[in-house]
Amino acid sequence: MHWTVGRVRIIKFVELETIGGTRFILPQATPEAIRAQSWLTPDFATAEGRLKMSIHTLVLETPTKRIVVDTGLGNDKQGRSVPVWNNRTMPFLETMSTAGFPPESIDLVICTHLHVDHVGWNTRLVDDRWVPTFPNARYLFGRTEYEHWRDHSSAADETATFADSVQPIVDAGRAELVASDAVVSDEITLIPTPGHGLGHVSLHVRSDGAEALLSGDVAHHPSQMAHLDWSSTVDFDPAQAAATRQALFSRFADTGTLVIGGHFDAGHISRDGAAFRFQAVPGRGSA
Asked: Which pick of 23, 126, 177, 221 has the fewest CB atoms within 10 Å?
């Protein structure tokens, strides 16, 4: 699936799709509450009120760079709190390569934050060692986000994630710690969007008068546009996360900006009373 924003092409590679089973992330998103937002169906929820979500990686192809945004779960990882996230053996890299994006062709990797489902393919296991998956790429980590997890990873799954998917990038000399508002390229600027993560960032893409927002986990699901106070169970600061949603959605509502979430498909944000709604924008075919 891909979308075009000016001279930038955005391609989505899905690693895992789910329907339902997401109440551990958004406990307020009951079937009744979801069914009450009829615009969520069928693109973002089923008629029964079950959420449609995915774990995916986005590849941005600009005139000068190939950029990977968020790297999902990865293969061969252990110590994850969700059983199906452990010891995966999926042909994810093969799928990217077949689509014309082999790992060695990637110039830059950007992680919106350093949670387990956004850093997994940073590394791959080779001869019992974790090595950078994208050997020619620089990896951009928000300095605030990186320093937080470096100093405060305490739970077993956090420690495992940092050890196998973040620190090996630093040890290999491929990491670059950047400010939360860094200019990445002529087309891409980071936007500080704290709350879900202390140093969470979103990406603002601008090219030839067209714009896109890669919002990461500011919202895990479009239902949070209607319910700004619905915070994820893994938000670092729920109050800040809600304030960030209000500010970010206000900025991009009714502008025609293509918005792609960290766990949901592309669409446009529009105002809906005191909150917002989301209209899906279908992508084109495969990569």
From this structure: 126
* 287 lies in some domain: no
Q: How many helices (H) and strands (E) does the chain have?
A: 7, 15
Instruction: Quote the CA–CA distance of 241 and 196 in Å, as a whole number.
Output: 6
pLDDT, tens digit, 9 for 90 and up, residues 108-167: 999 999 999 999 999 999 999 999 999 999 999 999 999 999 998 889 999 999 999 999
- Residue 216 pairs in a beta bridge with 261
CA dist 239 and 245 (Å) reads 10
Q: Note whether residue 286 is domain-resident.
A: no
**Nearest CA-CA partner of 188 in 100, 97, 281, 58:** 58
CA torsion sign, 177 to 148 to 73 to 131?
positive
Q: Considering its fold, how many domains does the chain have in total?
A: 1
CATH code of the domain in which 68 resides: 3.60.15.10
Q: Identify whether 285 is part of a domain.
A: no
Could you give the CA distance from residue 193 to residue 241 in angstroms, rounded to a whole number? 8
